[in-house]
Description:
This is 4-hydroxy-3-methylbut-2-en-1-yl diphosphate synthase (flavodoxin). Belongs to the IspG family. The chain is an alpha/beta fold. The chain is built from 12 helices and 15 strands. The protein has an 8-stranded parallel beta sheet with strand order 8-7-6-5-4-3-10-9. A 5-stranded mixed beta sheet has the order 11-12-13-14-15, sandwiched between helices. Strands 1-2 form a two-stranded antiparallel sheet. Helix 2 packs parallel to helix 3. It is elongated. The chain binds iron/sulfur cluster. The site of iron/sulfur cluster (SF4) has 11 residues, from helix 11. Iron/sulfur cluster (SF4) binds next to helix 11.
Amino acid sequence: MQDNKIKPRYPTKQIHVGNVAIGGDAPISVQSMTFSKTHNIEETKAQLDRLQLAGADIVRLAVLTEEDAHALKTLKSMTSLPLIADIHFKYKLALIAAESVDCIRINPGNIGSKEKIREVVKACNARNIPIRIGVNGGSLEKEFEQKYGATPQGMVESALYNIKLLEDFGFTSIKVSLKASDAPRTMQAYELLRPLVPYPFHLGVTEAGTLYHSMIKSSIALGNLLMQGIGDTMRCSITGELEEEIKLAKSILRYSGRQKEGITIVSCPTCGRIQADLVSAIKKVEARLAHIKTPLQVSVMGCAVNALGEAKHADIAIAFGNKIGHIIKGGKVLVKMSEDSIVDRFVEEVEILAAERAAET
Ligand code: SF4
């Protein structure tokens, strides 16, 4: 039913950040950002490794000083992840960074003269790397801020202005982000700009807050945009652990129907009929199935009342009872066994099913 609401992806120009294609028919990639001082090689490398392990496709690093910019070369040699240098104002840092990274994030309107923009474009052309224009509702150029305030219209005007500055030099290897700190403005800005330019969009809500708040804002804004066919790469910003950003982004992709990979778990909220510790069971199931990439619908139910009906929609289900549980596969009861060991058996059965499905494709 959900599929009816999912629109085809908006056709966009394809660019490449390292070996990751963005736009066109490329899968929607997931990004994050390190929070170490980039020149602290050891810490930054550790964060890159954490992000890679969590499944990030691309990572952005803040470049504030020449020391940071020069560190990028070493960091690039230590990771297979595509790297983006995040630079504000100082075009010279972009020139250094462009020698080693896979993309530069800089707003050309912030770096001053046309000559400086030309230099950055030249450096990016020399290594065939793209530029991300990152419009942020909280830091619009003065003229747009005064005319429109921090509104979606102001963000769109800023994006068009920055895009034109690059296009004037014949540079079109561009991606664009339009982030506000709330979902409605973020959504509106992307929706307004989408028909006006062919470039791929990097989706995100800026300063989205802690996990709980970011989860809600990012799900509303990014989930909606993705279902409208808008968005080619994304970041869920969270004041918290790096791994959570990747997990959240991947879940939004999955639940908005844009990525089929991995396990989708349906679980009941429990009620007075429950006779088992479903909360502990679901935590164990989630953790132990997190490594599975094969798309599977799994349901975990507190009793048999809804489990059989739910199991018809699930590839494999578990229904608890009074000290016992049923494993239901393909709508039929596969096994009935004691509650104590049923999670272990369930995980085994899901892994077998995932391997069978993977072999079929
Ligand atoms: S599946 Fe059973 S325990 Fe869970 S909410 Fe429904 S009736 Fe209650």
